[in-house]
Amino acid sequence: GGFWIGAAGFVATSYLAKKEDDDVSAVLKGVSSASLEALNFVDYLNQKYEVSGKVGAALSDALDSTEGETSSSVKSTLGTVNGAIDSFDKDIGIRETLGGLVLAGSDLANQLATKVVELNKEYKVTDQIQSKIDEAVDKSKSKA
After folding, report:
1. Does the pTM exceed 0.85?
2. Are the beta carbons of 144 and 52 closer than 8 angstroms?
3. How far, in Å, CA of 124 to CA of 132, rounded?
4. Nearest 5°: phi and psi at 3?
């Protein structure tokens, strides 16, 4: 159930954020803008102060202070993983790719929600569901 609830939330949020004249849209745009600015600021601080590099150096120093087969195995593995991540980021451009995927997903979700709203207006699906619920409630009240 969690996946479907998350997907429905994403579609609804994407749809509401694309509406131009809605207060909910303004709130969602403000929240997403602030979140993006916060993420960019954290990335800026990480690059400026080399936080992840210093954490890696501290871990490496801690491993250097311990001797043994396990220590050198861990150092070797961390070096390989770090090199692979750096190479992948340079080749693919993780930030740009993820940003593009999020925007494309948001646009598709908005199109889906718009189509659902159009179909609901045409076929009155929510009205039919409400009618069935009302019938079931009336039947249960009459039996009680």
Report:
1. no
2. no
3. 13
4. -60, -45
Whole-angstrom distance, CA of residue 57 vs CA of residue 69: 19
- The pair of three-digit structure tokens given for residue 44, joined into one six-digit string: 């800026």
Q: What's the pLDDT band for 69 if we cut at 50, 70, 90?
A: low
Cβ atoms < 10 Å from Cβ of 114: 14
Helix (H, G, I), strand (E, B), or coil: what is residue 113?
Answer: helix
d(Cα 90, Cα 82) in Å, to the nearest integer? 12
User: Which ranges of 19-124 does DSSP label H, i.e. alpha helix?
Assistant: 23-49, 51-65, 69-92, 94-123
State the Cα–Cα distance between residues 31 and 24, nearest whole angstrom: 11
CB 42 within 8 A of CB 137: no
